[in-house]
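Each record in this resource describes a single protein on a pair of labelled lines. With that in mind, the following record should read easily:

===
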Amino acid sequence: MTCHDHYCLIILISLILPLPSVIIAVSSSSSSSLNTHDHDDHQEAVSLMKMTRKVDTTSLESTDTGVATANLRPWKGQTLLGRHKHHLIRNAHGILNIIGWGTLLPVGAIIARYLRKFPLELYDEWYPLHILCQSSGYLLGTLGWGIGLWLGNSSKQYTLKTHRILGILVFIFSTVQMLAVFVYPKIKDEFRKCWEIYHQIMGYALIALIIANIFQGATHQNHAEKWKWVYVGVLAILALIALALEVFRWIIKYRIQH
């Protein structure tokens, strides 16, 4: 057996036996049969075996984006292009829900509260505007929610149970609110006042769930702080508008009473 064949046999055994046993075998063999020139080749073979063992013992690493590596091989098609596509889909999910559920639905609630009677009393315009904001917000938010469900089902790493449960509750509540269009009682109905109270309470509870869920989802995005501050800015603008209309409403109400 030549020296070359000798080392090929050692490397083959290293894939089966533990590394210490192979090193002992190599040491005992080299002390009896290898010359000074072959000793350098022996060191190279040992280094190669150490590198092989290090690769074989690489542990599974996962990130929030769903990218995982085991033995330096990405899981199920996660190439560079696939990761970029996954990132774009997640961004689309966040943007659609922030615009749809997180912005348009609260705007619809502001319209219903402040434009229906006073201070502006847009009797003919407020209801179509309210329906437009609610329906468009519902459609965009539901689309984003569907994308989120797909992301959760396509990756074992992308589960986010709390975010998923809150999203399902938001979808149920918003669907119930949208069905109100078909069961809206007439002005002379006896239960009209009770229905309005229920509709308002349900709407405010829905908005609270939406805000909580958006911040919950933002914590799992890349650049989470930027996502959070963007939505904080959206909420600040909506809050300032609602506050200004509320103050104006109380001023008008005070003048009417006095």
User: Anything to note?
Assistant: The longest strand covers residues 68-70. Residues 229 and 235 are 10 Å apart (CA to CA). The radius of gyration is 32 Å. The mean pLDDT is 76.
